[in-house]
Amino acid sequence: MPPVPAKAELFAQQFVPEYLKQSPSYLDGSLPGDIGFDPWGLAVLANPQVSTMTAAQALDAKSRTAEQRNEQMLALSEEEQAEAVLWMRNSELKHGRLAMLAVAGWPIAEMLNGNFLRSEGMTNGRAPSLFNGHLTDHLPFLLVVFGGLAALELKTKDTVTDGDYAFDPLGFASGIGSMRTLQTAEIKHGRAAMMGITGFAVQEFLYGTPVVQQTPFFFLPFGGFTG
């Protein structure tokens, strides 16, 4: 068996060195929020054609290091590269939108239901989650919400591109600025929300208290209303 690389070497292998200084060729800034940042060479993992476990395992076996992933990406045609990047963008948009909903719903749940969440056998005031427990107490609600989202995904997967559902009841696109500006703002807020909701979960897991109690100044003027 070949020797196992040291941890420092394994860590170093997860970056494409030149991408820490310059943008990859497949990120040309044409998409909203594209700042040419992919030092891990992850774009190639967005392979819409991988539909079987065997194919996924084969891809994974050749993608252990960033250099391997980069080699695979650069071996694709420009059209295939664009398809992979767009797949990643759509995935990021979906996760960002869910995170924005979650990062709002998490503290609201703690502020409106603080007394209930502090009752015996509950979560000490924290929002139910995988880390905090009691998430499955709300399984019917979760099934309705995520079942609806799954149904929407299946219904629109062949018609919706770039996250555009033609849903703008308040006319933001025509009343505030260009669509490009709004799309860039959305992806930035989505990225911030993904980091924020991860922070909520980790903070509450480590400290055992609700985030609205740990940092009430972030939730003013509502921060004092935790019950």
Summarize the structure.
This protein is mostly helical and 227 residues long.
Largest sheet: none
Structural class: mainly alpha
What is the CATH top level name? Mainly Alpha
Question: What is the H/E order?
Answer: HHHHHHHHH
Name of the CATH architecture: Orthogonal Bundle
Annotation field: number of helices: 9
Please, how many domains? 1
> What portion of the residues fall into strands of 2 or more residues?
under 5%
How much is the radius of gyration in Å? 21 Å
The residue ranges in which pLDDT falls below 50 over 5 or more consecutive positions are none
Q: What name does CATH use for the topology?
A: Chlorophyll a-b binding protein
Name the helicity range: 40-55%
The averaged pLDDT comes out at 84
State the CATH superfamily name.
Answer: Chlorophyll a/b binding protein domain
Please count the beta strands (DSSP E, at least 2 residues each): 0
- What is the general shape? globular
Span between termini:
59 Å
Explain what this protein looks like in three dimensions.
- This protein is an all-alpha fold and 227 residues long.
- It has a single domain, classed as Orthogonal Bundle (Chlorophyll a-b binding protein).
- The protein is 52% helix and 0% strand.
- It is built from nine helices and no strands.
- Helix 4 crosses helix 8.
- The mean pLDDT is 84.
Attribute tags:
mainly alpha, single chain, globular, 0% strand, 9 helices
What's the structural blueprint in terms of helices and strands?
Layout: H1 7-12, H2 53-61, H3 66-75, H4 78-112, H5 114-117, H6 139-156, H7 172-175, H8 179-207, H9 211-214
Helix pairs in contact: 4-8
